[in-house]
């Protein structure tokens, strides 16, 4: 498991890694769940970051990860797919 340290320069690195993982997970979720979705780099990244944050919260709640651990890819992907499906459901009702 990849662990992020708590040294002085690490918060910036954490944010960069979170954005990168969010982008990768968001793009994978859009590929696995085709259809209308928030497109582009920003939309995929934001939905992926939200999914990664939810994965971290779930992982910490169940004791799978500890503070400073990077989120797991598969749990982040699952959370992002659920968020993407919810986004589409709410977008369809309001449109």
Chart the SSEs and their pairings.
Layout: H1 10-32, H2 40-61, H3 73-94
Helix pairs in contact: 1-2, 1-3, 2-3
Structural account:
The protein is mainly α and 95 residues long. Helices cover 71% and strands 0% of the residues. The chain has helices at residues 10-32, 40-61, 73-94. The longest helix is centred in the first third of the chain and has 23 residues, at 10-32. The N and C termini lie far apart (42 Å).
- Largest sheet at a glance? none
| Number of beta-strand segments | 0
Rounded to an integer in angstroms, the radius of gyration calculated over CA atoms is 14 Å
Tell the overall outline: globular
The DSSP helix count reads 3
CA(first)-CA(last) distance: 42 Å
- Helix/strand class: mainly alpha
Secondary-structure element string: HHH
Kindly estimate the percentage of residues that lie in beta strands according to DSSP. under 5%
Low-confidence stretches: none
Q: Work out the count of structural domains.
A: 1
Q: Helix amount, in percent?
A: over 70%
What is the averaged pLDDT score? Answer: 79
């Amino acid at each position: 498991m990849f662990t992020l340290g708590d040294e002085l320069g690490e918060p910036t690195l954490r944010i960069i890694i979170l954005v990168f993982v969010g982008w990768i997970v968001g793009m994978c979720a859009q590929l696995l769940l085709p259809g209308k979705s928030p497109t582009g780099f920003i939309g995929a990244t934001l939905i992926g970051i939200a999914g990664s944050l939810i994965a971290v919260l779930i992982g910490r709640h169940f004791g799978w990860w500890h503070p400073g651990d990077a989120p797991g890819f598969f749990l982040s992907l699952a959370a992002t797919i659920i968020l993407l499906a919810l986004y589409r459901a709410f977008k369809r009702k309001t449109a």
